[in-house]
Specification:
- Helix 2 packs across helix 4.
- Strand 21 and strand 22 form a beta hairpin.
- About 10% of the residues have low confidence.
- It contains 9 helices and 23 strands.
- It folds into 2 domains: about 80 residues, Immunoglobulin-like, CATH 2.60.40; about 325 residues, 4-Layer Sandwich (Purple Acid Phosphatase, chain A, domain 2).
- The strands form 6 sheets. Strands 14-13-10-21-22-23 form a 6-stranded mixed sheet.
- It is of the alpha+beta class and about 400 residues long.
- It binds fe (ii) ion (2 copies).
- One fe (ii) ion binds next to loops.
């Protein structure tokens, strides 16, 4: 190693994106070229970097304490990079179950940005929306999820071919899954374009595709279509019980509208939440829309107006004080409380920062961890999309690490 021999090496946006009790996910926009050594205490990880984006998962950390990450690049000739972070303190009791959520897949989308001007060049055979979803499903399964809940905006336009992408992706992942629709799934598809696809399915589609086709007759999928491997009920609200938790799935969409509703599903959700409370079980509610903080939308897209949201969260907290609500729709990461209920918004796998969420159920609590989709091609794309809205998207969408990764205790 010669001092200064790697003077062209760069290090941009070295980011401790996710923390758990014993693991952390580190990503970077540009690192190297060269070999980088990541050290946390006595443990080290060596990574060959090409000067582009990348990610590293570190494991075996001590829970509930502050750690220092030190990164050295061979021959860089500059002081090592240092970052500090704290691992989470697990809630009491044994771990009972792991599941994951993804939302805002927008399958079929090829562009991003307010004016849809950002696109991959050259155009790849498969758009980033499909690649990011496939990779998110692979990663969340490797992380240990035994179930995935998909929280809406599965398709970009509700078109048949986009549902076909979805059916193929979830079939390939071999994970049990549950879905709730988003506003993009509950509007008229482009029937001219989808008619040929529907005909092709009828001739060539696999069983899931065929089942979907029969079920929806080509119209946008609704929660009551019961796209579920766990239980089918003819209702915009369903639930499933996993060890230590009841998951309630709620269709918050209004046909053809960006705006959502919580009034229409409040009683059904709260009845199920109260039954869980009677058995001493916490409840996790998954919907597409978030509670708006102000009566007038001050950012895009609009969610559920605050009075409706107030009624919903007050009733949910009354029904079951151990309640958690998570939304998608905004493509950003946030955590806040409404009437004593912890609420999160989790971003999309396909635009900055490009994420999915994992949940670990403990006897005495629940952990949320939001992770970036970590292949270099998706990191390169999602990093590029941070430049949307004159770069504001890069500041707006990630949220803080504490908003993404945390434990709640029941
Ligand atoms: Fe979306
Ligand atoms: Fe949405």
């Amino acid at each position: 190693m010669t001092h200064g021999a790697n003077a062209s090496a760069v290090a941009t946006k070295l980011w401790i994106f996710a923390v758990e009790d014993q693991r952390a996910q580190i990503t970077w926009r540009r690192l190297g070229p060269g070999r980088a050594r990541f050290s946390i205490g006595p443990a080290t990880w060596e990574v060959t970097c090409n000067g582009g984006p990348g990610a590293l998962e570190v494991d075996g950390l001590e829970p509930g304490r502050r750690h220092e990450l030190v990164v050295e690049i061979d021959g860089w000739g500059r002081p090592p990079l240092r970052r500090w972070f704290r691992t989470l303190d697990p809630p009491p009791g044994p771990e009972l179950f792991r599941f994951a959520t993804i939302s805002d897949l927008h399958l079929g989308a090829t562009r991003f940005g307010y004016f849809h001007t950002m696109r991959e060049r050259p155009e790849p055979p498969e758009p980033h929306s499909i690649r990011a979803t496939r990779q998110a499903l692979t990663e969340l399964r490797a992380w240990g999820a035994e179930l995935v809940v998909i929280k809406g905006d599965i398709t970009n336009d509700g078109r048949a071919e986009e549902w076909e992408f979805f059916a193929n992706l979830v079939a390939a992942s071999q994970l049990p899954y549950e879905v709730v629709p988003g506003n993009h799934d509950n509007r008229s598809p482009d029937r001219t374009r989808s008619a040929a696809q529907r005909l092709r399915w009828a001739l060539t589609g696999g069983p899931i595709v065929q089942w979907l086709t029969d079920r929806t007759e080509g119209r946008p999928l609704r929660a009551q279509d019961g796209l579920s491997l766990v239980g089918i009920e003819p209702s915009p609200v369903r639930h499933l019980d996993i060890p230590g938790l009841r998951i309630v799935l709620a269709d918050t969409t209004r046909e053809g509208r960006h705006l959502g509703t919580l009034d229409s599903i409040r009683d059904e959700v709260c009845t199920r939440a109260a039954k869980a409370a009677g058995a001493g079980t916490p409840v996790f509610v998954a919907g597409h829309h978030y509670p708006m903080p102000l009566p007038i939308p001050h950012f895009w897209p609009p969610g559920v107006p605050p009075r409706q949201a107030q009624r919903f969260f007050a009733a949910l907290h009354d029904a079951n004080p151990a309640a958690f609500y998570t939304a998608g729709h905004t493509h950003r990461n946030r955590r806040y409380e409404r009437c004593g209920v912890v609420v999160t918004e989790v971003g999309s796998p396909k635009d900055y920062p490009g994420v999915w969420a994992g949940y670990v159920v403990y006897e005495g609590g629940l952990r949320q961890v939001v992770r970036r989709v970590a292949t270099t091609d998706i990191l390169a794309w999602t990093d590029y999309t941070r430049l949307a809205a004159l770069g504001a998207w890069g500041l707006w969408s990630p949220g803080t690490r504490q908003q993404r990764c945390f434990d709640v205790r029941w």
